Amino acid sequence: MASHIVGYPRMGPKRELKFALESFWDKKSSAEDLQKVAADLRSAIWKQMADAGIKYIPSNTFSYYDQVLDATSMLGAVPPRYGWNGGEIRFDTYFSMARGNASVPAMEMTKWFDTNYHFIVPELGPDVNFSYASHKAVDEYKEAKSLGVDTVPVLVGPVSYLLLSKPAKGVEKTFSLLSLLPKILPIYKEVISELKAAGASWIQFDEPTLVLDLDFHQLQAFTAAYADLESDLSGLNVLIETYFADLTTEAYKTLVGLKGVTAYGLDLVRGTQTIDLVKAGFPEGKYLFAGVVDGRNIWANDLASSLSTLQQLEAIVGKDKLVVSTSCSLLHTAVDLVNETKLDDEIKSWLAFAAQKVVEVNALAKALAGLKDEAFFAANAAAQASRKSSPRVTNEAVQKAAAALKGSDHRRATNVSARLDAQQKKLNLPVLPTTTIGSFPQTLELRRVRREFKANKISEDNYIKAIKEEIKKVVDLQEELDIDVLVHGEPERNDMVEYFGEQLSGFAFTVNGWVQSYGSRCVKPPIIYGDVSRPKPMTVFWSSTAQSMTQRPMKGMLTGPVTILNWSFVRNDQPRFETCYQIALAIKDEVEDLEKASINVIQIDEAALREGLPLRKSEHAFYLKWAVHSFRITNCGVQDTTQVCISPYSFHFSYSLLSHH
Fold first, then answer.
1. d(Cα 335, Cα 513) in Å, to the nearest integer?
2. Contact between residue 195 and residue 83 where contact means Cβ atoms under 8 Å apart
3. In sequence order, what are the residues at sequence separation of 6 or more whose Cβ sits closer than 8 angstroms to the Cβ of residue 416?
4. Which of 136, 25, 7, 153 is nearest to 72 (CA)?
5. Beta-ladder partners of 660
């Protein structure tokens, strides 16, 4: 039985690529130095997968910045402002598109579907002169082959590339990006021809937009594109990879009807209903790449459950046509659990990072082929049982509090106008009061103090003194500027989610659990492994300290439950909204303690409200409902004179949320 990995993290187990990129950008190292680090990372990844027994190993999933930007480079779709005059695209043009330069801004960056990864949005129009301008896909296939590893080259599919693009500046917003399909397919044909000449036997096209709400015209574009490519793909096995959600019935019919396609990759983790489409009908003689190992979270796979699913699929598609795979690229998870030296053994046994997921994929493939590693499966079953029964996971008091939530818990007792009148009498603010969003810049000295306190190199008294001095500077500056509602600047905080997670039960933190957000930017999401509660006040001391320094209102600053949820690795043993409600109850406790400490203006930051929005419009209402309820829970118990405001950062749909409060 065969195994496959959709894609793999690029940064390296200890962020080697991040540091190499930043050194190159700072002109501290050469292009050759950067290329050497990149080549070493690619070689290590390919060797790791080969040693693990993976049959279908991807290439061209490595990127110096972003895979969509790589596709833009391949197609020569460089916006004119970067002054590119043709030829192979080099680092100067590539990184100017990604980051801008002294003369021109970068291209737009936006979310990659509903993940926390960001991609560079192509800027297209009728006048773009496409040309084959980056041979990266072919070069990396040859590179792997020279190392003795035959890989599956991966390309962003032509239709998804266009659907993820935007009209360039000056192009009508109504311009049909799909009308460019005949212009980009010749470039894809050149790449395919070179890959065939280099000896490739498989090619993977990532077409994740197939999981979106697509109309008939958009679905027809897939049919037209692959019909056009059919003769060029002759002699190759062609995998169309989808991920992140279920396919609609129409999208599934379109997918399995594509010309010249050998195999279909389906996300069976987030695409919980897709398996029903497979059971209802799967084309005879085609391969199913079954994404049963979660590429977006860090929990160990339930191998017994996945094996059962695979056995059901095997009966439908045939033993020799089923390939075990990840649900999506492992780009969205941390790299290697081996590097986590501070996680305790129990929690560690519940986890699997990218390196461990590769092993899980191969173990499932071997088990399906009758070569089950009984010891490996037994250890996995024991870890699954441990997680289900651990008292660290379940807190009865939290469960009861969440279950006891009634409709009245989601609304304050009096209406908005009455509360505003009471708050105005209490706060005596001008008609248009001024404030700031919250955090002030953190100096190297401030970060040093915080780092040394965490490492026990300075005393708590000295730490508190240093932070108080910083708060006093911030307060004095705001008073000098005549700001009406002040903030304390948050000098004690490292990260808006990590700071709270470190003080809440049910959270764990990694040392090297870094995940790429964009370019060289990496984040280290907290792990929510159990029921969430607040053992003690988290911000009251610092907010009270700041309030004592001024007669003006001082805002209490909290991160909201939806943002904490969306920027964490979330437990997968209960619905996300239940975990969100638990976090909301913990924040509610903090809000009420701030009020008791005479903090009468409280800001709850929800920077990630939009980021959790599901891919399907039909699911938006449910998400918005529990997101709104979570915010209401946080402040439903305060007095009318206390003002609690939400700061969503994203104005794209904040009005639809705020109108509910």
1. 7
2. no
3. 661
4. 136
5. none
Instruction: Give the integer Cα–Cα distance in Å for 556 and 558.
Output: 7
| pLDDT top residue among 629 and 141 | 141
Helices H, strands E: what count in the chain? 24, 20
Label residue 410 by pLDDT band (50, 70, 90). Answer: confident
For residues 265 and 413, what is the distance between their CA atoms, to the nearest angstrom?
51
List helix spans (H) across 318-369.
345-349, 354-368
| Topology of the domain covering 2-389 | TIM Barrel (3.20.20)
The pLDDT tens digits for 122-179 are: 999 999 999 999 999 999 999 999 999 999 999 999 999 999 999 999 999 999 999 9
Is the four-CA dihedral 257, 259, 261, 265 of positive or negative sign?
negative
In terms of Cα–Cα distance, which of 241, 162, 167 is closest to 203?
Answer: 241
Q: Do the beta carbons of residue 566 and residue 526 sit within 8 Å?
A: no
The token pair that represents 629 in the structure block:
């309820």
Structure tokens at 232: 């060029």
Q: What is the pTM of this model?
A: 0.94
What does the CA dihedral 156, 160, 166, 168 come to, rounded to 10 degrees? 50
Summarize pLDDT for 536-566 with one digit per residue, the tens: 999 999 999 999 999 999 999 999 999 999 9
Listed in order, strand segments (DSSP E) in 97-220 are 109-111, 118-120, 123-124, 151-156, 166-167, 202-206
What is the predicted pLDDT for the residue at 658?
A: 42
Which pair of tokens denotes residue 388? 């289900």
CB 195 within 8 A of CB 141: yes
**What pLDDT digit, counting tens, does each position of 205-229 carry?**
999 999 999 999 999 999 999 999 9
- The label of the residue with tokens 């708060």 reads 471
Local confidence band at 610 (pLDDT 50, 70, 90 cut-offs): confident
Class of domain 396-648 as given by CATH: alpha beta
Q: Give the span between the Cα atoms of 110 and 121, in whole angstroms.
A: 7
Distances (CA, A) of 538 to 224, 535, 628: 57, 9, 23
Where, residue-wise, is CATH 3.20.20.210 in the chain?
2-389, 396-648
Contacts of 245 (CB under 8 A, 6+ apart): 211, 212, 267, 270, 271, 614, 615, 616
Residue 635's H or E segment, with its range, is helix 620-635
Here the tokens at position 133 are 């301008």
Give Cβ neighbours of residue 133 (< 8 Å, ≥ 6 apart).
Answer: 73, 74, 75, 76, 78, 86, 87, 88, 89
> Distance between CA 283 and CA 334 in Å, rounded?
35
